[in-house]
Amino acid sequence: MGKAKAPRRLADNEARAVLRTIRVSPQKLNLVAAMIRGKKVASALADLEFSRKRIAGTVKKTLESAIANAENNHDLDVDSLVVAEAFVGKSMVLKRFHARGRGRGNRILKPYSHLTIVVREVEEQVEAA
To answer: What family is it from (predicted)?
Structure first.
């Protein structure tokens, strides 16, 4: 018997990839996610390839995973994919201690974050001449 299969959360023309507990602050990761949001997949990959941000390589791997999911699991056309959503969530924060002078101490926060990338297949409009 068993439970019924859960309905799909995304539309039929969408695929996603999620990367959890990335060792970077959500604020810094969101700068890179905003850079690719709404772009075509090929353009987004090129931007990430030549970005100077440290986390750009990790975001690129996640985007490639979303593209592979779209191609292999959902039979979507890679050439017509667009980054529909790229959002960042907070994860855990490691609290560390840094010894200071006169017996004091400062707190060091080491935040982690989550990244979700959703790609969507769009039909290209043919311009009338």
So the answer is: Belongs to the universal ribosomal protein uL22 family.
> Per the structure block, which two tokens stand in for 28?
């810094």
* Residue 2 per-residue DSSP state: -
The three-state secondary structure class of 117 is: strand
Q: Name the phi and psi angles at 114, rounded to 5.
A: -115, 150
The domain that holds 74 is classified in CATH as 3.90.470.10
Using the CB atoms, write b or e for 41-63: b if 16+ within 10 Å.
beebbebbeebeeebbebbbebb
| Residue 8: inside a domain | no
In a domain, 35, yes or no: yes
Is this model's pTM higher than 0.70 or not?
Answer: yes
Residue pLDDT, tens place only, 116-129: 999 999 987 666 65
Burial class (CB in 10 A: 0-12, 13-18, 19+), 24: buried
Our count of domains for the chain comes to 1
Element (H, E) at 127: none
Residue 82 domain-assigned (yes or no): yes
Domain housing 66: 14-121
